[in-house]
Amino acid sequence: MAVKWGTLSRFILTVVAIVGVPTCTLFVKRADGTYDWRWFGGQIFFVLLAAGVPAYAAWRRKRTEISDLTRSRLHLSFTLNPVLRRIVRRTVEDPAALRNEIRAIVVRAAADIVGPGLMTRSCYFELVEVTAQPAQAAPLKQLVLEEQAGRADPVLSEFTSATPRGADAIKLVMTDGQVRCRDVIKEPLPHWADDGDQTYKTFISVAVVGHGTAYGMLTVDAPKAGDLDKRDVYLLRAMAGLIAVANTIAQVVPGAGQQ
């Protein structure tokens, strides 16, 4: 594994400081009992170095966190602006086409800017009802894949109210919930485990709900555990809201639901 220069340099400087302090102490006092202030100054320097290295590292970490947060806000801004313009224009020109267009744009944007980037996959599952069989008391609910972007691996997940996993996913949608699994192998969520053939190791799922109506579920996954964090949840939530707005407009604008 390659060692980043920042980590290696901090380690080297820390070792130098630890060794330098006692070394200067040995030579600060001359044989005749007088003090060599040059060695005393070196001792002070190494003490400051030992204290400064971790302080600098903490400052760099904080700066990186701020940069990541700023980057997330910029990404969200870049996504929001064209989508909102499209919503306004299509609502006036062609509301029937709005729903599918916005859904495709948002799913593509989620794959591009949420998580690690190139290896991210995003999916949108539409909530539908399946006609009940005679032996069933109520229609089955399903989450059906409608849109996919990013990593080209096939989507193996199936969600139906007849299974514990599907029931949990549908409950998440109906209650406007969200879920994040940092590591599907080491920290699996109850009922959310796949059969082992999935290519992802971490995922986020959020409900798409608008105007009191549950529309579906927006998900993002990545092949490396831990690649998705809480900030990605907030980002995906905002994107799910865009799909919900488009779906709501498609329902309430006259003639929009005919496509």
From TrEMBL:
InterPro entries registered for this protein in UniProt: GAF-like_dom_sf
SUPFAM superfamilies xrefs: GAF domain-like
UniProt keywords, alphabetically: Membrane, Transmembrane, Transmembrane helix
Transmembrane segments: 7-28, 40-59, 234-253
Keyword tRNA-binding (UniProt): no
Domain of life the protein comes from: Bacteria
UniProt protein name: GAF domain-containing protein
Organism: Mycolicibacterium boenickei
